[in-house]
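ARCHIVE CARD
CATEGORY: sequence design from structure
SOURCE FIELD: tokenized fold
FIELD CONTENT:
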């Protein structure tokens, strides 16, 4: 009894001391009058790190080595105006500055600038415009930031620190056209109308050998979906640099992976110009939105008609400019992760406009397995159902099943980076794509971002509009004939984000209940992580660098089997 009493007294004393110190920590932030003369809207971020190898803004992540970040919204923040980060401002991975252990840290602040959009729906929203970087808050041109400097936190917290933001991230130079790669950008009328301002779509176009020498040739089109590409990736006309310093890849446990990447890019070029390689166009699309580095290539309530804009504006423009065949039988979709979901979703939603998709490690294709959450039956996304335990749902693992993060932690990081689905991160872009638009003009949350409580009314909206397995099952009598032989899905059975679980459910439907039979394929990589793409003969580190060639034999077979009578099968088959 005495021991219990002593424990209670110690606990009360500790709580009292913590209460006394609860508001001691305070860091002031302002931006220089010389940097910007106008008031700014945006997300003001404060970062601290005990690692001085790089700036704190480059050390915030969802892994075990993350550093600390805190965030607040600012509206009409004037030059010289002071904003205060204290113990009440939510942070990650520590919710409060008061919880950061005593020590020496590098501190930095950044203002992620928002712009105002007057949407066609009548809503006014404030969001970060992409500025050519692919929606990265820490590198976006025009964002304001401070130079890092050292601070000390003791047992009483931190005070008397004033960060003055006096740097601006410079513009990004756009890539130049080469003999092989051309870059295009067009204004989308559909998107401009939705967003209330000029909005653009772009693409990097890889031309076939002999393009100029064969002016009468028209070509099939391969469309690579994925995250924002700065230029056409994985293609170089020169061997690897002779003096390049080898870099170690922690993801693949490979030394000199940068050299491997350059060699694979050069090998692709050599394959591309071989006499027997089919002549075709390959494009990588740029379609960043104010919510993410790409739109997910479908129409959505909060992001607008990107599916229609890409399919009916961008693709025809490219085919007209670079002599594409311009027919559904000659277009093919492929990609991994986000791009894998996009390839499959676009094929499903525009079944006659494309002749096949190759979807590697796709984002959740069945929301009964929204990673590890069943959004229809589970009540909470962050914790497993239990009467007596508080076990968190994981969000990331390695091929051995070791956990690096939980769903709650991932979402709390996003909440710090931006509220109202504005973080520019994974869970928020799924909301921005899949959710109905709220009364405030922003996407409605699928779950409470702080607690994880699921909104099943929103889940039902997701089901009807974007659950690809459900849509296929619901509409197979209408879609089946147009999708036979077009669906190919590949996933590692130890996908880092548990994406294989949804693929299993999709396979169950495709293999067991489709009439007509889907006549495609679903394959799994043994102990393969994200982004396994269908080649069991090579490690993921290599096969992921061969997207542009690995599906070509299947595409050629598909063209031979499905091209309509009178189709041009010859003009593009020169050596």
């Amino acid at each position: 009894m005495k021991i219990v009493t002593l424990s209670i007294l110690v606990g009360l004393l500790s709580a009292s001391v913590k209460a006394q110190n609860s508001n001691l920590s305070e860091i002031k932030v302002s931006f220089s009058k010389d940097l910007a003369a106008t008031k700014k809207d945006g997300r003001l971020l404060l970062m601290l790190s005990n690692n001085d190898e790089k700036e704190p803004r480059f050390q915030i992540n969802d892994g075990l080595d993350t550093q600390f970040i805190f965030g607040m919204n600012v509206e009409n923040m004037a030059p010289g105006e002071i904003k205060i980060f204290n113990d009440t401002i939510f942070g990650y991975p520590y919710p409060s500055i008061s919880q950061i252990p005593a020590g020496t840290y590098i501190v930095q602040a950044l203002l992620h600038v928002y712009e105002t959009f007057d949407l066609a729906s009548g809503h006014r929203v404030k969001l970060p415009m992409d500025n050519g970087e692919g929606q990265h808050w820490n590198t976006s041109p025009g964002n304001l930031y401070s130079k890092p400097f050292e601070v000390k936190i003791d047992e009483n917290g931190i005070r008397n620190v004033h960060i003055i933001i006096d740097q601006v991230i410079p513009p990004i130079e756009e890539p130049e056209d080469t003999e092989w790669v051309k870059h295009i950008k067009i204004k989308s009328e559909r998107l401009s109308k939705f967003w209330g301002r000029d909005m653009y779509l772009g693409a990097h176009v890889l031309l076939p050998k002999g393009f100029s020498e064969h002016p009468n040739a028209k070509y099939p089109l391969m469309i690579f979906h994925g995250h924002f590409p700065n230029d056409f990736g994985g293609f170089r006309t020169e061997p690897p640099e002779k003096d390049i310093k080898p870099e170690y890849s922690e993801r693949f446990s490979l030394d000199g992976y940068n050299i491997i990447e350059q060699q694979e890019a050069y090998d692709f070029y050599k394959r591309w110009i071989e006499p027997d390689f089919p002549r075709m166009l390959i494009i990588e699309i740029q379609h960043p939105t104010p919510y993410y580095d790409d739109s997910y290539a479908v129409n959505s309530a909060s992001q607008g008609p990107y599916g229609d804009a890409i399919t009916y504006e961008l693709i025809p423009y490219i085919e007209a400019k670079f002599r594409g065949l311009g027919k559904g039988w000659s277009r093919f979709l492929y990609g991994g992760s986000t791009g894998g979901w996009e390839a499959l979703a676009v094929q499903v939603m525009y079944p006659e406009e494309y002749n096949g998709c190759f979807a590697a490690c796709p984002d959740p294709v069945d929301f009964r397995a929204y990673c590890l959450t069943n959004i229809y039956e589970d009540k909470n996304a962050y914790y497993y159902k239990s009467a007596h335990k508080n076990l968190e749902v994981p969000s990331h693992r390695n091929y051995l099943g070791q956990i690096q993060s939980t769903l709650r932690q991932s979402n709390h990081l996003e909440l710090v980076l931006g509220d109202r689905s504005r973080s520019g991160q994974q869970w928020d872009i799924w909301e921005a794509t899949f959710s109905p638009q709220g009364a405030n003009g922003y996407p409605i949350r699928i779950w409470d971002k702080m607690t994880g409580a699921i909104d099943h009314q929103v889940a039902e909206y997701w089901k009807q509009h974007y659950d690809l397995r459900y849509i296929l099952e619901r509409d197979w009598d209408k879609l089946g004939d147009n999708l036979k032989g077009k669906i190919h899905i590949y996933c590692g059975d130890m996908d880092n984000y548990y994406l294989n679980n949804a693929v299993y459910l999709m396979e169950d439907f495709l293999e067991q209940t489709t009439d007509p039979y889907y006549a495609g394929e679903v394959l799994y990589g043994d102990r393969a992580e994200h982004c396994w793409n269908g080649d069991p003969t090579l490690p993921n580190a290599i096969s992921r660098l061969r997207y542009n060639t690995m599906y070509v034999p299947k595409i050629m077979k598909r063209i031979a089997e499905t091209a309509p009578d009178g189709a041009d099968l010859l003009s593009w088959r020169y050596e």
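CARD ANNOTATION: Residues 181-364+468-562 form a domain with the Rossmann fold fold (CATH 3.40.50.1820). The longest strand covers residues 103-118.
SHELF: design records, drawer C
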